[in-house]
Amino acid sequence: MRFKIIITLSVSFLLFLLFSTEIQATDYFVKSKADYKKIYKKLSAGDNVVLANGTWQDFEIVFMGEGTQDKPITLSAETKGKVFLTGSSNLRLAGEYLVVSGLVFKDGYSPTAEVISFRRNKSHLANHSRVTEVVIDNYSNPDKFDQDKWVVMYGKHNRFDHSYLAGKRNAGVTMAVRLNTEDSQENYHRIDHNYFGPRPILGSNGGETLRIGTSHYSLSNSFTTIENNYFDRCDGEVEIISNKSGQNKIINNVFYESRGTLTLRHGNGNLVEGNVFFGNGKDHTGGIRVINADQTIRHNYMEGLTGYRFGSGFTVMNGVPNSPINRYHQVKNANISNNSLFNVDHIQLAAGSDAERSAAPIDSLFSANLISHDKQIDGFTTFDDVRGITFKDNVLADGTKSSIGAGFINKSFELERADNGLLYPKDGKLAEYGIKRDIKVIQKSQTGPDWYPKAEPTVAFDSGAEIRVTPQEDILFNTIKTAKSGDVIYLEPGEYTVRKTLSLDKVLTFKGQSGLVKLTFLRKTLFNIEDKGSLRIDGLIIDAKDAPDSAGNVLIANTRLPTIYNYRLEILNTSVQNLNVNHSFHVFDSGYRAFADHIVIKNSVFNNITGDILRLNKELDDLGIYNAEYVTLRNNKFIDVQGTLINLYRGGTDESTFGPHFVMLNNELNNVGNGKRNKSKVVATIHGAQVTNIENNSFEQTPDLIINHTVGEPQTKVLANHFAEATKLHIVEMNVDGPHTAKIQGNNNLTVVDPKQ
Ligand code: CA
Known about the structure:
mainly beta, 16-stranded mixed β-sheet, 2 helices, binds calcium ion
């Protein structure tokens, strides 16, 4: 027989007591932090704690107790998704059989190094516990390089599922499994049906989405299962999943347009099966990278992946002989079978081969894989002896020559998309090659809590309304206040005098009919890009003749406050002139630690400028924390610019980023970089970029160029540029022996200066 008694302890604190014939369990309806404090130390098996709907500011929850398999202790929301933990909030679980659900962390960040932690402290861990249907949304520390983690699993037999983790903008892996004590090893955790939503490019190391283990404990087994998760544009850095322990199963996950790879970085005996990678041709989309012993990689599907080097669609690494625990262990006994690779641009074997990484893969099998590419390439590059890999019964599309030779047969087949969204050969006779037919592909909608919408991470330029304005006092300043992200402010023809700096914390376009709209301004800066702001200028004439007569004015700047959101800057079809009221008047100056997803300058003219065009060199500490991912200059004219065209700097030697990228095509430069205050004495400095393409530009009256290769295998092309006078390109491999690796062809009047050549 069961009955309930309701006891009112205080107005704000109701205690529901539930009695049964055998076990007494209590339901607590908690309305305040003070109420929670009264009960959290006395929770026992079968108790249920319900947090009232509403916003809980600065609530550091300790949820602990000894539940049992039949009588767990639960912590839940009055209504799922209606309990918001904001400000300095976090959650620690400790004990046995605890279940947490329905909570939303947003509008703040954890004051500690973890938001959700499966331990209270080093000696009090959670076991047999579950966190399900929780949300951590944009809960990023505004100090971008103050590292923290959102979810950290300790203990054993825990589960994290159906949760939503998106928008981590500060350094530190989004979710980690720790094996740092014996009580957390051989843990049999389960991580499933989670939505790992968009994680923007961090612009340095430390942007992994999921890490299992660390190098230090990587020879320990974890027995963690990661299945049916959806990784949506997890672009933080080169590793999406960094597996660093043994005996894990990574199965049936989907990786959608995510830059980087699932990396078997450390640990042996892992199973990678049934994962689906859709790159859709996006830059740096990768698949699986294999390192260590006894790895099984089967029935994985890879389509439209463009990544190369360690970010390739498929990579098998070379190891270091007798490797220290934190370097690269040799690949031994890898079984790579029945994977389908369609339009995968790069499959790299014995990758990373160098004087240190000299141990090629051994005792490994590559069999029954199915490979086809629209360009009739097989995508393979081998960097060392791959006789330690047995190639057997792999199928290549007809007309594609095998770079490997034996072990590949050409077959003619047509692909068709099955109901599960994957491509299979129409011909049933090929069923034994590539992935199995009955693979179930997890849908985005099946991951995360179904009550929380999956938001898009950025607002596109020109995606909102058009707001038409005419020249009036403060019209732009006032319009910005009411505009919404994505709107276009369309300037009717005329001259606009801007009295106040235009600060943007939204995504806005300022557009005019080319040649008919002129902006002058009376402040030292015209546009200031604040956090959450992005700027597109299209079709304007910007004349700085009325700017204050002071040194070091800047046309467009980032806020001098710390920023956490990546921004975009575009200058299109625009004329920028007369930045010359005093010396060192720059066009754009990056903020310290500010980071641009892209900067594009196209079809524009810059004339009569005493400072620099692009200053993207705020990294002074060589930590590899740079200022822009993609910088593109296309079809522009730069005339009488005393400063430098660009100073793009990415320091440090770690290899965790894909950028920066610099593209400069079809520009005309005339008298650029010759001012006495241009201390670099060069027209452009590109330091540490991973991709550089300087092509088909004309340089007249310009000093030398500098390109410094620092790390990785940067891809640099300097092609078909015309230099009116004899000019030097100084290029050097700073951290690698030997001459530069750039492709420099078809330039006239250009001499390459390489101290190592
Ligand atoms: Ca990393």
